[in-house]
Design goal:
With 400 residues, the protein is of the alpha/beta class. It has 2 domains: 194 residues, no CATH class; 175 residues, 3-Layer(aba) Sandwich (Rossmann fold), CATH 3.40.50.2000. The chain is 37% helix and 16% strand. It contains 15 helices and 13 strands. It has a 6-stranded parallel beta sheet, sandwiched between helices. Strand 11, helix 11 and strand 12 form a beta-alpha-beta unit.
Length: 400
C-alpha cells in the first residue's frame, strides 16, 4: 500500500490509467475515486471529499493523482499526504483548453493546476541542480529531461480525455510524458463511457458486423468504399464541425466513402452530430460509442483512414491506437501531432484535409497498400513500464 492513487474523474482514459497502474502495481497501492460525472464540480471540490475519505496510513510513500484534483488544497487539508512524494498526471491544460462559447474563461480550473504544480524557490533551485533547468526570466527552459522525447509515456488508454502529462512534484522532477498505446503484442484497451447516449447503436452494430464478415473473408475488400474513422469524444474541443463539414463536402460531390463515428458521448452533444447523421445517411457505417473493446478495435481494423480535427491535444491516444490497427492517419499540423507523426500525415487547413480525402475516395487502394512510416512501439507499456515503476518507486520521505 505504498502508492496512493487518487482520481476524481474515474472514467475514460482517467480510469484506464489508474486501472493499469493498479494492475501493474498489484497489492502495492490503494485506489480512491469519484465517478466520471460533473467534471467542473470535481475540479472544485474533490480535495475536500478526499480529505475526508482517503484512509490514514503510515504505509503511503507516493501520491499519484490526475490534475482534476486540486493537489495544493488536498496537501493543505491533509498534512500527512502533503509529506508524500507526489506525481501529478495532466490530461489537459486548463489554461489553454478551448472555450466553447465566446465568453469570459473561468480561470479557476487553470488556477487549480498552477497551484498543484507550483514549486517554491528552494525546490526550483534543487530542480536546477538535479536535472539542469536553466532560468530564463519568469520561464524555465529544460535541457535533457529524462525521457522527454523518447518516452511519451505509456498508458493502455483510449481518447476520452487523452491529453496528458506527468509532473513529479516531490522531489521536483517535471516532465512532459504522455499517454501511449499498448505493446504490439497485446490488444489495446478501450475505456467504458460514462453518461453514454447512443440511440442508434443496435442497428449500426449489426451493420458493422455484417460488413466486417465480408471484409475478413475477402469478398469486398478492393471494391468497398473508403472507410473513414473518427474515434473521439463528441465534444467541441475535438472540433467535430470541421470534420463533418469536410465529409458533407465529399457527400455533395458524390464521392464514395463509409464513416464510423466512434467515441463516447456525454450529457451535452454538439448540434452538428444530429445534422451530420441526417446528411451523411447511408455513408454511415457506425454511429456512436462501442462498449465492447473487441467491437471497437474491430471497427478500427476495418477502417482505412483515421482523422483528427482536434483543437486541443497533449498526445492523442485514439490516433495512435488506430494507426496500431492499420489506419492511415490524417492530423492537424499543430499541437502535439508534428512531434509524433511524419509530415506526410499532417494537414494545415480543412481544404487540405478535403483534398487528401477526395483523392483517397477515388483511389482507396493507395491507403490500403500503405505501410505507416512512423514509430509506435516506443509508446507501449512494454517499452515504458519500467520507467513508470521507477517513477513510482517508494523513496524515504523528505522534509518540505
Amino acid at each position: 500500500m505504498s502508492v496512493l492513487l487518487i482520481e476524481p474523474f474515474y472514467g475514460g482514459s482517467h480510469k484506464q490509467l489508474m486501472d493499469l497502474l493498479q494492475e501493474e502495481l498489484q497489492e502495492d497501492c490503494v485506489l480512491c475515486t469519484l465517478p466520471a460525472k460533473k467534471w467542473h464540480w470535481k475540479a472544485r471540490t474533490s480535495a475536500l471529499y478526499f480529505m475526508q475519505t482517503v484512509p490514514t496510513s503510515s504505509n503511503y510513500r507516493i501520491l499519484f493523482a490526475s490534475s482534476v484534483l486540486n493537489l495544493a488544497e488536498l496537501a493543505a487539508l491533509r498534512p500527512d499526504l502533503g509529506k508524500l512524494k507526489k506525481v501529478l498526471y495532466f490530461h489537459e491544460n486548463q489554461l489553454a483548453y478551448p472555450v466553447q462559447k465566446c465568453q469570459e474563461r473561468d480561470f479557476q480550473y487553470g488556477y487549480n493546476q498552477i497551484l498543484s504544480w507550483f514549486m517554491p524557490e528552494h525546490k526550483l533551485a534543487r530542480l536546477e541542480k538535479v536535472i539542469g533547468v536553466k532560468r530564463n526570466g519568469d520561464a524555465y527552459q529544460s535541457e535533457g529531461l529524462p525521457g522527454q522525447q523518447e518516452s511519451r509515456a505509456v498508458m493502455k488508454t483510449i481518447d476520452a480525455h487523452p491529453e496528458s502529462g506527468l509532473c513529479e512534484l516531490q522531489p521536483g522532477l517535471c516532465t512532459t510524458q504522455h499517454e501511449g498505446l499498448p505493446s504490439p503484442a497485446a490488444a489495446p484497451v478501450q475505456a467504458e463511457a460514462p453518461e453514454r447516449t447512443n440511440p442508434c447503436q443496435g442497428e449500426d452494430k449489426q451493420h458493422l458486423t455484417f460488413n466486417l464478415s465480408n471484409i475478413l473473408s475477402g469478398l469486398d475488400y478492393q471494391q468497398r468504399p473508403l472507410h473513414i474513422a473518427w474515434p473521439h469524444r463528441w465534444e467541441h474541443d475535438k472540433d467535430p464541425e470541421t470534420f463533418f463539414k469536410v465529409l458533407m463536402k465529399l457527400k455533395e460531390q458524390d464521392l464514395p466513402f463509409h464513416v464510423s463515428v466512434l467515441g463516447e458521448t456525454f450529457s451535452e452533444i454538439p448540434d452538428i452530430f444530429s445534422e451530420a447523421r441526417e446528411v451523411l445517411g447511408s455513408s454511415v457505417l457506425h454511429w456512436g460509442y462501442l462498449p465492447s473493446k473487441d467491437d471497437y478495435f474491430r471497427a478500427l481494423c476495418t477502417a482505412d483512414v483515421v482523422i483528427s480535427t482536434a483543437k486541443h491535444e497533449f498526445f492523442g491516444v485514439a490516433m495512435i491506437e488506430a494507426v496500431h490497427c492499420g489506419c492511415y492517419p490524417l492530423c492537424p499540423k499543430a499541437l502535439v501531432y508534428p512531434e509524433i507523426f511524419p509530415a506526410e500525415y499532417l494537414y494545415s487547413t480543412p481544404e487540405q484535409l478535403f483534398k487528401r480525402l477526395q483523392n483517397f475516395c477515388k483511389r482507396p487502394d493507395i491507403v490500403r497498400r500503405h505501410l505507416y512510416k512512423g514509430e509506435t512501439a516506443g509508446f507501449s507499456w512494454a517499452a515504458l513500464g519500467s520507467k513508470f515503476r521507477s517513477l513510482l518507486a517508494a523513496e524515504p520521505r523528505e522534509d518540505l
